[in-house]
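Entry 12.
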Amino acid sequence: MRKKEENRVAAAKIYRTEAKEKKTTEPRTQESGVAWQIQSPPRRLQFQIEAADQGETVWNYLTRKKGFTKMQVKRMKFQPDGILVDKVQVRVTHVLAEGERLEVSIEAPTRKKDERQTELKNEIEMERPEDSKTRQSAQKMNRERMPNILYEDQDVLAVWKPHGMTLHPSHGHHGDTLMDQVQMMIAHRDGGDAADVPLYSIGRLDSDTSGIVVFARNQVAAQRLWQQRMDGRFQKQYLAKCEGQFSEEAKEEQCISKPIAPVPGELNRMQVDDAGKRAVTYYRIWRETEHETWLLVHLETGRTHQIRVHMAWIGHPLVGDSLYGNGTAGEMYAALSACTATFFQPFTGEKITLNALDKAERGE
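Predicted 3D structure (tokens):
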């Protein structure tokens, strides 16, 4: 027991020395303009145990005081060095004492190299020759056209998605999606395999829609950012260019509250339908021209094509919208961009505001 205690004291001294030398990077806000980025080590969190926390077990401290879910704490238990007190691995039943330093890992386990190779081999064997050509050309495109990063810290990454790009890999889209590009960029920059770069999109954007996409970089951050979406602290604003002119009253915020449902027999097309799901859209005029009006829009709900459907329903379809307006399919995209995002850093609570209104206005 004495030897174990001596080892703990020695480890604690080394830990304090390393902590003094370690430089930290604070989250920043990014106004429209120059993007920035940092390189980050594997994500770990540290907590200094205070007098008020003394006598708590690690389990109770993490779940009751630090907001981790039971599943997240269980996941920590089975990771190498997943839960440390003064650099010594402990159980979740460990009783904390004032002055101790608790350190936890929130990284998702990476897949083994042979598992990734097997998956890739299976994908290649199953795809048709034309699919292989598409995949190879998409990978080449990815290397030549890296995403525009708007904000990055150890837990959150925000990038700009152009019009016409799919967000997630799906049937027919492998290597050419925004998530593929971001994973490839991070793997190339930081070293490693793109398949082992954890990313969790917080919300989604239609392929036609451009704008800010926020990714969580670990599972705990994802859970906390999704909770912010649920309770309204995570907000996005959209810039929509609509056909025609609006009445003067639209210079003040207006509300469209009309349910939306799929159009029977048509793939990926929606309509206002009293039997559909609740959908609420708020908008106001931002700028007007002779034949078009720019609106600033935010959503209370997030239905498929919600802004496009609601604007078409009131007689002002989005410019270029081939599905609900007068655009030409394959040649134009609906003029809609997620131009601002406001949320809170999932661990520090710092408010983060991203503004890319200039990109949205240029139609990027």
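Annotation: The chain is about 30% helix and 25% strand. The first strand starts at residue 44 and ends at 48.
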